[in-house]
Design brief:
Shape: elongated
Number of domains: 2
Low-confidence stretches: 1-7
Oligomer: single chain
CATH topology of the largest domain: Beta-Lactamase
Order of helices and strands: HEEHHEEEHEEHHHEEEH
CATH class of the largest domain: Alpha Beta
Strand order of the largest sheet: 2-1-5-4-3
CATH superfamily of the largest domain: PAS domain
Length: 247
């Protein structure tokens, strides 16, 4: 995990995923690690001082700079086409690094190849629309949250207005249910057990209260620690209303 200090640049070189670091004012690249050099198939010396937009059109225009400077983390997907015609998809986690005086200095982008997930995603998205369910995964250490399109629809949230982390998810839960949901998830992490809960949400687009059923399992590292949670969300509002009508 990369922390929000300039000294974090020292750990980037050994990071297995492509890492790009840009100047916060000019958005020109000031650093990239070996994985990023391989990702773009371009020598590092030819990349420093250039904008990532020069190699991946739209890479910088997709980010919300003001939110990054406020300390928020963003998640964006990128599509990169190689000279051999191959196209691969990447999920990028973007955040700001601050200097010793806590002034914004660098924008960091960490990319993860999700090409295979994207192909599976297309099929699951279609199935999810019919069953009103979506799927998600949370990388526990860096606190990076991925939602399928159907979850954004269920929660009434635009992708560009979502922080893509655990706290942003919690903010969408009904205030009266947040404590129970947080406790259930944290208990499942501590016990390395499945997470299964029904709770209310408040749609952000219209303020409507709806019910969802969430389930997840955890992925452990070699030391038995939870590193990723993978789960589903299903809209069960119609069922809940039908049950209430029978009471």
């Amino acid at each position: 995990m990369l922390t929000n200090t300039v000294n974090s640049l020292e750990v980037c070189e050994k990071h297995p995923s492509p890492v790009f670091v840009s100047d916060v004012k000019t958005m020109k690249l000031v650093y990239l690690n070996a994985a990023a050099e391989k990702f773009l198939c371009t020598p590092k010396d030819n990349l420093i001082g250039c904008s990532l937009d020069d190699f991946i059109p739209g890479a910088n225009s997709a980010i919300q700079l003001a939110d990054l400077i406020e300390g928020k983390v963003q998640s964006r997907t990128l599509e990169h086409r190689y000279e051999n015609g191959e196209t691969r998809n990447f999920c990028s986690t973007i955040f700001c690094l601050f200097d010793e005086s806590n002034s914004p200095k660098h924008i960091v982008r960490v990319c993860e190849d999700i090409t295979e997930l994207t192909e599976v995603d297309k099929a699951l998205q279609e199935a999810g629309k019919l069953a009103q369910f979506g799927y998600w995964f949370l990388d526990v250490g860096p606190n990076n949250l991925y939602w399928s399109d159907e979850i954004y629809h269920i929660f009434g949230i635009e992708k560009t207005n979502f922080g893509a982390n655990y706290e942003a998810f919690m903010a969408s839960i009904h205030p009266e249910d947040r404590e129970a949901v947080d406790a259930a998830y944290m208990d499942s992490i501590a016990g390395k057990s499945d997470y299964d809960i029904e709770h209310r949400i408040i749609r952000r687009d219209n303020g409507e209260e709806r019910w969802v059923h969430e389930k997840c399992k955890h992925v452990l590292d070699e030391n038995g620690q939870v590193i990723r949670s993978i789960g589903t969300v299903q809209d069960i509002t119609d069922r809940k209303r039908a049950e209430e009508a029978l009471v």
